[in-house]
Amino acid sequence: MKEFNPIPEELEIIGKKIVDAAYTVHKNLGPGLLEKVYETCFCHELQKRGLNYQRQLYIPIVYDGLEFDEGLRLDVLVDDQVICELKALENVNPVWEAQILSHLKLTDNRLGYLINFNVPLIKLGIRRFVL
Question: Domain of 76?
Answer without folding.
Answer: 9-130
